UniProtKB/TrEMBL annotation:
EC number: 3.6.4.13
EC class of the enzyme, as a word: hydrolase
Keyword ATP-binding: yes
Organism: Biomphalaria pfeifferi (Bloodfluke planorb)
Family matches, as SMART domains: HA2, HELICc
Domain Helicase C-terminal: 60-238
InterPro entries with a match to the protein in the record: DEAD-box_helicase_OB_fold (IPR011709), HA2_WH (IPR048333), Helicase-assoc_dom (IPR007502), Helicase_C-like (IPR001650), P-loop_NTPase (IPR027417)
Taxon lineage: Eukaryota, Metazoa, Spiralia, Lophotrochozoa, Mollusca
Protein name, per record: RNA helicase
Amino acid sequence: FNYEDKTLEHCSEQIASDEIPDSKLSKYQLQLRYPGYSFSTINTLDKMKFEKLDFNLIAHLLEWIVTTQHDELPLDGAILVFLPGYGEIENTYNELLETKEFKENKDKYIIIPLHSSFSSDEQRSVFHKAKPGIRKIVLSTNIAETSITIDDVVYVVDVGRMKEMSYNHSRRMKSLDLIWVSRTNAEQRKGRAGRVQEGVCFHLFTSHMYKHILRPHPVPEIQRNSLEQVVLRIKMLSVFRGEDIELILQELIDPPLVERIHGAVQSLKEIGALDSQMELTALGYHLGSIPVDVRIGKLILYGTIFRCLDATLTMAAILSYKSPFVNPFKKRHEAKKMKLIISEHSSDIHTMLRAYKEWWQARDEGRASAFSFCKKYFLSTKHLEMICALKQQYVEILSSIGFIRKGIKLKDVQTSATYSSDGVALITGKKVNLNNENKELLTAMLVVALYPNMAHGEIAFFDIDNHLTIQQNDIVSIHPSSVNSESVFEIGSLIVYHEKVRTSKVYIRECSLVSQLSVLMFAGGCIEIDVSKDPPLISIDDLIHYKTTQLEVALSLKALRSELNQLLSDEIKEPYKNLMSSPKGNAVIACVAQLLSDSTIPGVFNFFACITLMGTEDEEQQPQLSI
């Protein structure tokens, strides 16, 4: 029927409620929702795929802005396009290059992508005013929403989407989701237009979407981020002693879901920060005193105990902040190549640690040498300096809770720094830095901090997808930014990773290949050996299983692990007293460090030649890692 001839009063029963989005409406219902609009406009709305970004629409809108003589709109000025992420920036950039106006008149436009992973030079270029006759177009994530201001922006194009990070406790996974912006976000983006003259904002969503579908405000962080540190801080406050943590958090203005609270509590119990009675352990008290993720806090504490303080503080600062490597928009492949050249120990963390150390060595040769080093390996000086600043802050915190010499302040660390050193190793002393160069021990510190974030190789071949499986049978891939993303993992290979993130698919990030001894010595609670099996079965938390014919060595390792666990418990309770004065503790730590760094020690070498991860016999399955 000709729906244009129908009237509102004759078809009122077909009016859709405000909660129903435009994409669910018929053409006639769209006409009822948007009276006064032409048939062409209604027809276009009906054809639009609101759930997908239309890069062709974005490109043609920009073409219309720069080519049409507008009577009431500005004729010049920079254009800022808000896009959700890196992939959308790249797709829009490529679409513009294929659009007639921008393809045929490249010298009239400067198109600048803006993303947090880009180099400082790329980010600074957005502030440069374009020369007369040249139009600047900035393709940005919401980094340009509040973090920076581009003064010459006159036009804003808001696609209405953003990427938001949330955390799923049950799956131990972060999720970077593509979502609609809130009305607050939309208003903030609109405000980016016209800082120096009147501006115009195009929102690529309907007025009904704005009024009735978009959330009024973004989801509060406490409702989507990990609650582990929040729970620890509450447990440390005497005013809440004996109180139910769930009831306390439910009193917040924006309370988190009960399931998220339970997930955080369970994680803290697994880490050893809470006991079975929900009380803080000594480890939990110390972790609550360090303002970082609890796993990174554990890395800091154990690195101090095992005399590799300086190196583990660098690793912790990197994991707390971000990678020092940048990903230039037009030089991604070259950047990945140089990252692989400087890679070390089949580990993203070791690679970043090496980059940080060699940057300081380059600084010793002068500012120009440091600049050249960063340029060659695509490193951000700003990121490296922030990593340094975090390291120095951690020293003051460790001193305040008794894990290193008392009385060290941040200004003392900064004063100890030279142009070739951040001052951390110098001011903390040799005793807590004896094992800084023991790479196997450093990797073991990642195991103790990040467990159970582990996976193991199940087959001996590799295909282009390199799919992996971890605990809970999640199918994952190593993130493309990892130095291990194209590695071949043999049967029995073990990997520890920092986090699991879902974007276009599920990735594990900051991966490190680890030794079996590191896992046996540091993963989980304790080793169990089932001698009734033939061959005997070694188990860790019923998650990792080995079978071995070297029972005597296995029993010796179990005994050493027991001594180690007791030592760690004592040193956590009285850190500085035990750390520096216990002959037995020093002997156990020296023994573990030597075992980890020397696989040719008699007995141990034969032992690992005879142990096998369980469940690796089937070589016909797809390439994967599993736990």
